[in-house]
Amino acid sequence: MKICSKGVWDDSLPGITFDENGVSNFGKLQERMMQEYPRGEQGTKDWEQLVQEMKASGRGKKYDCIVGVSGGVDSSYLLHIANRYGLRPLAVNLDNGFNSEIAVQNIFKVTTKLKIDLETYVVDYEEMKDILRAYMRAGVPWIDAPTDLAIKATMYKIANQEGIKYILRGNDFRSEGKQPKEWTYADAKQLLFIHKKFGSGIRLKTYPLLTLPKMIYSGLLKGIRDIRPYYFLDYQKQKAKKMLMEEYDWKDYGGHHHENLFTKFAMAYWLPQKFGIDKRKINLSAQVLSGALSRAEAMTRLSQPFASKEELENTRDYVMKKLELSPEEFTTIWKSENKNAFDYPSNYSLMFRLADTFSPLLKKFYSFKPMSITAREVIDGTAETVR
Amino acid sequence: MFRPRVIPVLLLKDKGLVKSEKFKNHRYVGDPINAVKIFNDLKADELVFLDILASAEKRSISPEFVRRVGDEANMPFAVGGGIRSIKEIKALINAGAEKVVINTYAVEKPAFIKEASEEFGSSTIVVSIDINQKFLRKQQVYTSAGTKSTGLDPVEWAQKMQDCGAGEIIINSIEHDGTMQGYDLKLVKEVAEAVEIPVVALGGAGSLNDFIRAVRESYASAVAAGSLFVFHGPRKAVLVNYPQNKELVHLFS
Domain segments of chain B: what residues? Predict the structure, then answer.
């Protein structure tokens, strides 16, 4: 197995290439992004300017921005940051029926202590269940894409309703990295296709859909901007975690994104055991390049299991029960052919053409600032999960 | 240390969990099984599950659903909705419920409460009494999810149910339901003083302080709430919550 000399990306990743020094294209993109989004003095300056813009846009209104919250460390800490910079965020949570007790408690504690208003968007679980089952039957790797898409759509929906122009997200490419598009690409068009083909015919009434036209409308016409503060600010997950525990009685939930039980199942069971995909390679590599972790330490962590066998089986059993999948159907799904997102229709190629034609505009709704990485690179090879 | 029980009451409508306001305007609040799992992890004392369509649809709350609740709940829980036979109670107990809650059928056939409590023991049979007031008339007992007035006096009715062998009575104020403005303390007190069996206050709790008042001023043996445990903050965001045990011990000490 070939492993990138800079991180722990290896040749199990689709689209990976290595140069003569054994550095992968993923490693190079990561390094470029780190240059594009400097932290330190420049980053703080960029962020503070954004804060001023947000405050100006929120003048006379109740909120300056929206912060998507999951109860996880990134978004909990983001509320803390927003508060510290004097912003008045509206916290928004998407309830897909799989929130854990720790997640809801964390959201409760942080929003209560900071007196930040919370809005929850609850997707009718019968719809969610049907969509998630359809994704499993479709045999795509990232079966939690419907949740990611719904979170993003909810942010835009509420931003539009409340007249809020800024959406803050807890993404941090320095600790998460960029996922190969084959693993994670998803959009509303594809969701509708997969649901129609593999679902039970239930009509989607509450599931929030951010279609391409809606996205263009919100981003370009209404000027709603997506900001990722950790691209600018010095954010270290471990430190943030410690602070949250001390100041907010926040609780740790174990692995990355394990605050949601379906996400945990997708990351720790479905991907590695059915597809041989270990997303930690991306996350850990990013951390190695950003200096949070040594390469050797990343290797050691990769060799460890996601969770104990028993814990993983419990999570699987709970998911089967919650999705009302019989052992027989689960086996059928498990044995069916592995596909990827590009085996089903999507807006991907349209996005591509748009990216080439309208790349300056596209940058705007990805809101990368300052940005010289092309939109093509952002979409291709780097499609990131929303959380 | 002894303290009154604090009970989340969850309403089932079709397959979803809803929260009502004055028994109307049902707002969808999520998947029942997820809520049960969270209440279980938060160590709630007890749960009550009511199927609000069952009576009208002439069936009881589904034993299959109750079994799924039981899979996630380590705490005792009571279930209600459309119960009209010993056989149905048996199925619900077998599915994992500790108690059953009867409302409409108790009014239609009070002898059934007697029969059921003789069969399963008083502690298994909970009678829920929904109370409302029309214009300037007296408060009276309502059935069929708050749609039918019976003309029955709440206190007399509670006494009768006690005589029939009910082990516990839930007093639910339709007028206060979902308002989060506090319990109908006067009503709870009148009933609690008139019967020997435990009275559970329900309808209107908006803060932990309302629990104290129901216990201290109205002698409720236990307090129950819906909105308080599923909503959070000024925008009424859906977020399951439940106080920690030490908080409750402190509250009632």
Answer: 5-252
The complex scores an ipTM of 0.89
- CB distance A118–B239 less than 8 Å? yes
pLDDT at A212: 82
Report, as an integer, the average pLDDT of B108-126: 97
- What's the CATH number for B5-252? 3.20.20.70
The shortest C-alpha distance from B16 to chain A (Å) reads 7
Contact list, A95 vs chain B (CB under 8 Å): 30, 238
* Burial group, residue A324, by CB count within 10 angstroms (0-12, 13-18, 19+): exposed
Cα–Cα distance measured from residue A325 to residue A334, given in angstroms and rounded to the nearest whole number: 12
Cβ distance B34 to A98 less than 8 Å, yes or no, reads: yes
Domains of chain A: 25-378 (3.40.50.620)
C-beta atoms of B16 and A125 within 8 A: yes
Residues of chain A contacting residue B31, judged by C-beta atoms under 8 Å apart: 97, 125, 128, 322
Q: Which residue of chain B comes nearest to A98, CA vs CA? A: B34
Cα angle: B42, vertex A150, A84; to 5 degrees: 65
Which is it for the CA torsion A93, A94, A95, A96, positive or negative?
negative
**For residues A115-131, average pLDDT:** 97
pTM of the model: 0.90
B177-232 residue pLDDT tens: 999 999 999 999 999 999 999 999 999 999 999 999 999 999 999 999 999 999 99
A-chain CB neighbours of B233 within 8 Å are 111-112, 117-118
Q: Which residue type is seen at B3? A: R
